[in-house]
Automatic annotation (TrEMBL):
<dbReference type="InterPro" id="IPR012338">
    <property type="entry name" value="Beta-lactam/transpept-like"/>
</dbReference>
<dbReference type="InterPro" id="IPR045155">
    <property type="entry name" value="Beta-lactam_cat"/>
</dbReference>
<feature type="domain" description="Beta-lactamase class A catalytic">
    <location>
        <begin position="49"/>
        <end position="263"/>
    </location>
</feature>
<feature type="signal peptide">
    <location>
        <begin position="1"/>
        <end position="18"/>
    </location>
</feature>
<dbReference type="InterPro" id="IPR000871">
    <property type="entry name" value="Beta-lactam_class-A"/>
</dbReference>
<protein>
    <submittedName>
        <fullName>Serine hydrolase</fullName>
    </submittedName>
</protein>
<dbReference type="Pfam" id="PF13354">
    <property type="entry name" value="Beta-lactamase2"/>
</dbReference>
<dbReference type="GO" id="GO:0016787">
    <property type="term" value="F:hydrolase activity"/>
</dbReference>
<keyword id="KW-0732">Signal</keyword>
<keyword id="KW-0378">Hydrolase</keyword>
Amino acid sequence: MRFSFLCFLFATYCLLTAGQSVKTKASRPDASLERQLQAAITGFRGDVGIYVQNLRTGKTVEINADTLFPTASTIKVPIQCGLFDKIHKGELKYDQELIYKDSLHYDDGIVGSLKDGTKLPLSEVVMLMETVSDNTGSLWCQALAGGGASINQWLEVNGFHQTRVNSRTPGREANRKQYGWGQTTPREMAQLLTYIRQGNAVSPDASEEMYRNLGRQYWDNDGLSQLPPEVKTACKNGAVNQARSEVVLVHAPHGEYVYCVMTKNQKDESWVRSNEGFQLLRTIGALLWHHFEPKSTWKPAEGYEKWW
C-alpha cells in the first residue's frame, strides 16, 4: 500500500513538472543593454522582436519578446525536438536507413537533388536540416516526427505554448497564411534553445545530440559573423521575403548568453547582404558580443565582407 502511494506521488510529480519552462537564474532587466538595443532598431522599416538573457547573471532584455513572428527556418529547431521524441520512444532509430523518393521533393537543396532510390541515414537528413537548413530534408523529418500536430503537442507539453508548426498541419491553414511554416516568439525560441542546452529536451542524451547539430551552422554570415570564429555557438536562422530571424546561444568567455532577434513586415524584401534585416542581425550580434565581452578587441577581418 505504501509503495503504491509513493508511486502515485511520483507520477503526480512527473505530470506537474513535465511542462516546466527553462530553468535559469531569476531574470531581471538589463536597462543599459535595452537602451543600446532600442537605439539599434530605431528607424528599422518593419517590426522587430528581441529577447536576450545572460545565463550566468539572469539579466534580460525583452523588446516585443512575446509577440508572434514567422519562424521561417527556425521552425527546424522544434521539428528536431519532435523527431528525437520519436527516437527516444523507440518509434525511429537515429541511424536507420531511409530511402529518398522523388515524391518527397520540395526544392533543389541537397536532399531534393538526390536520385530516386538513394539511401541515406536519418542522422544525415537531420544534420542537413539544421546545418544547411535543407527544406526537403526538413519536411521529411517533420513527417517522420508524426507531422506538425505531433510536434505541436510536444511543444505544448513542454511549456512552449506559442511556438507552432503550421505548414502541412491540419487545422492551421489560417496560421500558415499569416505566418508561413511556423510561428513563435523571440522569448520562446531563445528558451527552447536553452532548454536543449540544459539537457531538458526529450532526454539529456537527445539534447546533447540536438545541440551538436545546432553547433554546425553553415549560414554564418549574419549575427555569427560578428563573433570570433573560435567561440562556440549553437544557432538557427531563417529568412523569408518580409522576415529575418536568428536564435543563438553563445559560449562567451565570461558566461553564456542566449538571444533571439526576429523581424516581420519588412519593407526591404531584397536577398542581398545589405538587406535591412540581415544588417540588423549583424548589428545586434556585434552589439551583444561587445556588451558581454567589453574587453574584447576582436572584429571581423578587413575585407571579410568580400566573401559574401
